Amino acid sequence: MAIAALDKQTSDKISFIAFIIPKFASAYKMKVPDAYRYLKKYGGISYLDECWWALHTDNPFWAVRDMYKVCQSNGGMR
Description:
This protein is mainly alpha-helical. It has one domain (18-73). 72% of the residues lie in helices and 0% in strands. α3 (44-55) runs antiparallel to α4 (60-73). The longest helix has 20 residues, at 8-27.
């Protein structure tokens, strides 16, 4: 059974999310798996999924800050 290749947009989205989660972890002095769980729990991953196209065009600092704000507004306390 052949596996279909990902389209470019899906591949770009995955690449950006894989890039930005470690940036978030580093900014808030977390391990990457802990950062992922935090983002998943407080809506950061959903935010990335929905808004990655706009976020990837800006400085990673702003994307990380926006993710923090989303999580904080959903009950995150970091």
